TrEMBL record:
Positions bound to carbamoyl phosphate: R51, T52, R101, H129, Q132, G257, P258
Broad class of enzyme this protein falls into: transferase
Pathway: Pyrimidine metabolism; UMP biosynthesis via de novo pathway; (S)-dihydroorotate from bicarbonate: step 2/3
Domain (Aspartate/ornithine carbamoyltransferase Asp/Orn-binding): residue spans on this chain: 149-295
Primary gene name: pyrB
Catalysed reactions listed for this entry: carbamoyl phosphate + L-aspartate = N-carbamoyl-L-aspartate + phosphate + H(+)
Binding residues annotated for L-aspartate, in chain numbering: K79, R162, R216
A UniProt-annotated Pfam family: OTCace
Protein name: Aspartate carbamoyltransferase
Functional summary from the UniProt entry: Reversibly catalyzes the transfer of the carbamoyl group from carbamoyl phosphate (CP) to the N(epsilon) atom of ornithine (ORN) to produce L-citrulline.
HAMAP family linked to this entry: Asp_carb_tr
Record lineage: Bacteria, Pseudomonadati, Pseudomonadota, Alphaproteobacteria, Caulobacterales
Gene3D superfamilies registered for this protein in UniProt: Aspartate/ornithine carbamoyltransferase (3.40.50.1370)
Length: 305
């Protein structure tokens, strides 16, 4: 599962139905089910992660899999072993699923050509983060009932955001209208070809929106001169009560995390559970990843001669 484009509306709907069932199961008990008993899942994170790495680990364990979470800093990567050599080495141990995060766009796709197991893209550079888009869709479906017809504004540092790219693909596929809002320096020049309306003014872009999805300002991916002052950024693009009031009454707020409070979002909005879906997104992450792992394991069994 490398890209949101690997799905179609039917497949996405099937995954969401399965994930929905896992949400209810997880709420009843943390014991899980044994769907992946006898399967091995390897988590290989070359970039930092809290939500994605831990939720993949919990998801795999709840499904009964054997899980190896590789501490990359303590692995032979620190001695100079390449991404490909690392993956090929792990592949020789015959895992069933490799979950990979890497700073290079296309890393997961490249790996998938070198190994015999299933590969899940847990975020590759600024390219894609398909399981994040799936969990976001699940959160929206549970909050609104249906995603079709919703207007979703994705706001902030679109240029560096794999979350934005995967969400644009998946939300559009499921019938939502997607807007992109951000300063001209942080919205890619070709964004109008993504099938979205582009706005540089928060008031205009948020008007009439059902959902406001804030993005983290990814200062670590910017060279010094491109990085905006965080105070000025918050003034124009940070979501606070005043800006949120431009969206539809009852609009819900999302953020994939980690949040920069006071930079792209005000704590007053982020922590208000009557508008914020941020903690729901974290909960949905476990269920959505359980659905992805279960579906991949089932597909592999179907493929085995
Ligand atoms: N949303 C997300 O990918 O968070 P982490 O970087 O903590 O995994």
């Amino acid at each position: 599962f490398l890209s949101a484009a690997d799905l179609n509306p039917y497949a996405a709907g099937q995954l969401l139905d399965l994930a929905d069932a896992f949400v209810e199961l997880n709420r009843q008990s943390s014991k899980g089910v044994e769907i992946l008993r006898g399967h091995t899942v390897v988590n290989l994170f070359f970039e930092n992660s809290t939500r994605t790495s831990s939720s993949f680990e919990i998801a795999a364990k709840r499904l009964g899999a054997d899980v190896v979470s590789m501490p990359v800093q303590a692995s032979s990567v620190a001695k100079g072993e390449t991404l490909i050599d690392t993956a090929v080495t792990l592949n020789a141990m015959r895992p069933d699923i490799l979950v990979v995060r890497h700073s290079a766009s296309g890393a997961a796709a490249l790996l998938s050509q070198k190994v015999g197991c299933a590969v899940v893209n847990a975020g590759d550079g600024r390219h894609e983060h398909p399981t994040q888009a799936l969990l976001d869709l699940l959160s929206l479906r549970r909050a609104f009932g249906d995603v079709g017809g919703l207007t979703v504004a994705i706001c902030g540092d679109v240029a560096h955001s794999r979350v934005a790219r995967s969400n644009v693909a998946l939300l559009s596929m499921m019938g939502a209208r997607v807007r992109l809002i951000g300063p001209p320096t942080l919205v890619p020049g070709d964004a109008d070809r993504w099938g979205c309306e582009v706005f540089h003014d928060m008031r205009e872009g948020l008007s009439g929106c059902d959902v406001v999805m804030m993005l983290r300002l990814q200062l670590e991916r910017m060279t010094g001169s491109l990085a905006p002052s965080t105070r000025e950024y918050f003034r124009f693009y940070g979501l606070d009560r005043e800006k949120l009031a431009w969206a539809k009454p009852g609009a819900r707020v999302m953020h994939p995390g980690p949040m920069n409070r006071g930079v792209e979002i005000d704590s007053d909005v982020a922590d208000d559970l009557s508008v914020s879906l941020i903690q729901d997104q974290v909960e949905m992450g476990v269920a959505a990843r359980m659905a992805v792992l279960a579906a991949l394991a089932e597909k592999r069994e179907g493929d085995t001669p």
